[in-house]
Amino acid sequence: MGALGLGALIAMTFAPMVLIGGDPDANPIAETIVMKMLIIVWVGHALGTAAQGIWELDERALGFYSAVLTAVSVVALIFFATNLFDAYGSAVAISLSAAALVLSIVGGMLLFFYAVPFEILRPVAGWFTLVGSIAVLAIGLALATTAIQVM
Q1: Of 37, 41, 105, 138, whose CB has the highest number of CB atoms within 10 Å?
Q2: Which domain holds residue 88?
Q3: Which phi-psi region, left, alpha or beta, contains residue 21 (left: φ > 0; alpha: ψ -120 to 50)?
Q4: Across residues 82-88, what is the average pLDDT?
Q5: Could you tell me if residue 138 is inside a domain?
């Protein structure tokens, strides 16, 4: 998963698929930076999860890093919800805002599951992560295949 995220980061450097900045209201540098920031923190989480699984490290550190995940995802949600509507239309703005919202919820669930060990949250965090990742994948595929188009 971390390798896929790094691959997406490299591919986005050369040619971003959605945020192309064709409209005068668009700010492609800021939009690309927010997308890269989101990818980098989630790749960091994937690498931390892998390190925790391989070397059997403490899960609490990963939980406290989830606070950073949640904060960055909320910043991306606010940015996408407020800045993309005029430049790209409602479909792209809602899609990217929904993906950032799902990532914020997953990050918050992981924070409360790992940092404060509530064992009752184990199945809830697992299902949120599974369903949330499928939702983010579906939104990303819809954007990449131009099922959701820039207006």
Answers
A1: 41
A2: 2-144
A3: left
A4: 86
A5: yes
